[in-house]
């Protein structure tokens, strides 16, 4: 059989076997997946013997069928049979599953064996196919194929392979062999016929023996070698056996690889080459000719002349941009060929400008004239597109076009002659008409409509020269030219033009709805066209001369009836003109002068249109309204921003009311706090007075940051500074470190001065306002008068434009102020006076508005001085005005004293009068029609008459009587406060609910103060007395004195087991109390119900005696002294007790031990108390367990650091949290506020936690007393106790703890 046919047969068999293998593999995978799923669904293996189950079932069935039994027994029997049947079914199902699984495993094994056999057969067949394929590829018989190995040094292996296997591929192709590189063995396996394999091996060995030599070449030589697809380089390489020549890209070096003798021959051959280079210069267009389309021309030149041609640059103006490389003869021939090629293909271009008419001549009739000239001359003609088309509407003519003639010089000359001849013949048939430029648009018509009609009718070419107002008509038919001329002149006669001056103001009116009748008459009836000239905003009319005259008359009549004037107003005056609806200034002007008045908001322009004399009168009236004149005044009044809204009123109600009352116009200027008043001078003056008084009587709210911590307590409800500020008719409310002040502006400023005085170490500041003329009279501060005042008072005095400022301590300022008043009375003479009115009247009788009214009536200025409690009166006029002012002040004082009363009350009455959020005090004000304010412990009442005052007094007395607060203080047993309050305050909450009233912890937690009604206080006293009696009964205390440490240890027992047993047996609490440094013996305290304590007393005494007896026996054996004398025995005893390591046991606790002689002994509590060991309500520091020496040092150091720092609890939030957790929360104060003068008060604060600016911490309580370590801490303590490590004081917990009333500790 033929080799190729055999190969194809084996390949077909190989493909069949591979397909069969894939099919078996798929079956294997499917069965394997099913088996895995089978494993997942394996049922539980049943227990027991199925035969026994069946025998048991048969036995039970027989019993059921043959035995009479109760229904219940029969049901139980049936259930037993069903259960056994179920077990039998499970057994059957499991064995069925097991059989199925075994069958699947067997099939899977068979498939696996089949796959292995199939793989072996395919592998053998693949080897046979591969050998046959090699025989076909190498063109030999399979039996002729041999395999030879050749060793290749590692350094030459890559060279033999070549780049991307090029050398190997070349050897395989050349010798018809297959080469396999065995890199791991550094060998190459060559397969093929014996002769071919030997030749391939020789070639490989030549490569391994070859060397590389690199020589530098001139660029011309490189180009010559690479020209024509490196023909010369390949020719040299072919002529010399076993050599390789290569030139890297963009390089002028030649690399030669081969035997040294062959390399020498190659070098001689290259050196013998006669290579020359020639350089030519061409334009980019000429280079394009040389290169040709796709480089075809230059390739043909290189092939024809055996040279290398390279374009060095294609830039315009570049020299020597073409290089020719080759032999001298070949280069010369190539040079001549290129010169001839460029010369033959040189193309010239010339341009000509032609008009639009000439352009149409050449391009009409599908450019027939163009084609004719090109055919006759042989040149190429091109007409450029118009850069600017003619625009009939704007009158812009078309721009000239450019004609380009391209060809040889002879062709261009012939074409130009033919073009000029055609133009000359065309111009001979043109007729020119000169018309007025205004008629040109009409001749053209809308969108060129008219000119197109004439052209179509006459078949003539009509061209319009806008610059010269010429019309050119061209046609070979003279009749058609004449007809076109007549049509154009007819259009000119019917389109005479005249411009009517209208202007920007009236043009929109003429073109709008108002001017529509006039426009209709001119256009429809008269027959004249109208057009707007946008640049001048005038109107152009077009028609016959007669019709134009009639249209002009119509337009002028319309303009006279619609005379228009624009008047610009300030932006802030627009609201004045437009406000008032139907009664606005704009509406009134329009009605009064029968004009159309319109306000343009965007431009702030007022347009008035109508008959000219009426329009001018309206303008005069508008100017008077805006700027005043003829008895009308305009006055601007600046108002503080915070009261501007109140002056305007809701929806402008307040302003509208004043406008109606005073018959004026008031407008609020936009984006400013200015009111503009317009009207008669008297009315405006009265309105200004009313506004100023209203503004002066408005109270303000201002918040001031209190930076000095020492001032904060003074601002409390009973603080001195609080009362001072309150006496100035200012309500202070302290929120954290911010103080909110409410009152009249100057009163608030006085309160701020008081605050500054306290914050600046007593520095006080007073300002005395003066007018400019008064400042000049009092002289400079350097004058002798002022120096005497400064020396006498020791205060600082400065004089500025606004008045005098005095600073210093209060007594210094008072002295300086009194002397200043005396000096004013001397130097200002009749322009200054002082009225002593007293502190109450200063804030109660005179509001800022009252002082302003007196000043208005008397031409004076009045100011209050809180330091001297008087009123200052000054004027720029004289004695008469001062006298009037003092008289008005006295009258005001007399009327005020009759209508003002002060009621003194106790502290509890203040919140009663004010009520929650000021509800009560506001209700009193409303019912009595009196002004009521709370000033500390005084209630100030002011009314309109004496009857109202009496009514208010009675209402207040009744209110206080109904809400009188009773109080009593009840002592509690020591240590009972925690129990009294209860966990989470549960006990005290129940007590409050049952009795009512308010409970406060007082006297460092040893007593409770109850406030409320008489009934509530009585109920509370009775309930508390009963509770105390019960508590004493349940908390009977007996102390066993003078108990030695050995007796105490015996009571405690090993790990507290003895004390726990005693506590559980007798239901009592036992505390072991160590003695102090002087009295070494301590005590044992028993607490609980009296009968239980008495029962336990003998047992405890017995245990104490036994413990002391054992101690005496040990001391006798060891030769040591007693507890008070010897040291060794005592130290040994202390080590056994492990007191010092703070070890905790369940239900008991052993504190720090005696340790060294002379250390303080600590109190050890081993009880498990029901409530907190430190009673809540006790003052910080009242419970102080004794610490070790190291712990005491650390505690003292920390306390010193806390005292040195500025703040203890750094934030109000921190203080509030400790107040909440540690002490009874304070009663919250009532806060009253409102726009109508509501007072703001705070209730008296609760029991202070912070003392001297910081919270005094409690020492860390012993473990188990109010603070329980977590499980890890307990485990660690137990381990340390077992090790006996009781001497390490450095691990003491330095954390400070605060013990809460509810029985838990707070760590800070």
UniProtKB/TrEMBL annotation:
Positions with biased composition (Gly residues): 1117-1128
Entry keyword annotation includes Coiled coil: yes
Coiled-coil spans in chain: 331-358, 942-969
Domain K Homology: 144-209, 210-275, 276-343, 346-424, 427-493, 494-560, 561-627, 631-696, 897-961, 964-1029, 1035-1105
Keyword presence, RNA-binding: yes
Biased composition (Acidic residues): 1147-1163, 1233-1245
Biased composition annotated in UniProt, kind: Basic and acidic residues: 1104-1116, 1134-1146
Region of interest (Disordered), ranges: 1104-1308
CDD domains with a match to the protein in the record: KH-I
Keywords, comma-separated and alphabetical: Coiled coil, Repeat, RNA-binding
GO MF terms, alphabetically ordered: RNA binding
Pfam family membership, one: KH_1
SMART domains found in the cross-reference section: KH
Name of the protein in question: K Homology domain-containing protein
Taxonomic source organism: Triparma columacea
Taxonomy of the source species: Eukaryota, Sar, Stramenopiles, Ochrophyta, Bolidophyceae
